[in-house]
Design brief:
Length: about 240
Amino acid sequence: MSPTFSRNETYLDGQEIHTVSGFCRSDSLNLGTLIAQAPRIMEEQKIPASRPWRLTELACSDGRETWSIAAGLAIQGIPFQISAYDINPIVVNCTRRRYDYNKTYLAEDLQRWGLPAECLDFFEQGGKYLKPNAKLLKQNIRFAVADARRDALAPADVVIANNFLKECYVENSPSLLQSIGNAATCLEPGGLFTTNDAHYASIEQTLAGNDLYPDPIFGRYNYPHFYQYQPVSPLQ
Ligand SMILES: C[S@@+](CC[C@H](N)C(=O)[O-])C[C@H]1O[C@@H](n2cnc3c(N)ncnc32)[C@H](O)[C@@H]1O
């Protein structure tokens, strides 16, 4: 078994916050699906050739999830821009560093999301450390410290919120309401919101309250991970 997660428990406002992340996490298979379906989704969203597909990732932690998504898109030659946010400056700082990891484990991780082994070429091994290739991946990613509940987020065709909403889940939690509400404001009409945390009725209700409904295509076989933003011109 490969060590998939890093644990860097830290504290914010006196409260412990969990910053666990990993490459191609087993509980984040919705992102493998997103990557595999990317060309079709982009076509349906009518993304103009003049601009990249814009993804906004909430709660990116130390960036392992972000690099995994980037590698899966880059290997397909998809033009993309990821804006990745986390509230914790300590983990955002880690996105600039190398990871105590190796390509053997990463190869297993890539398989988990159904990504081709060639994605390994986007990473460089130096001793016991792994470093994403800055030229190939990093130019398309912007990491920043931001509070997903209230800070302005980059406009997005896709918002990713994995292993985050349940962190702020308490019945009728203001954090949950604010985070989803704020994310909805940065989504383009017809945009896609994906989360692996929609097991709770309150999360579903909060999504619907922000014009986010189960995506009609993904909904059939991957419910409840994908939601479509439907206020103006829903996708067919
Ligand atoms: C369990 S980690 C998830 C990391 C990554 N999405 C993944 O699945 O591997 C949760 C992250 O949420 C971040 N977080 C908590 N509250 C936040 C907020 N209000 N805005 C942005 N990030 C937040 C924490 O700092 C932590 O890094």
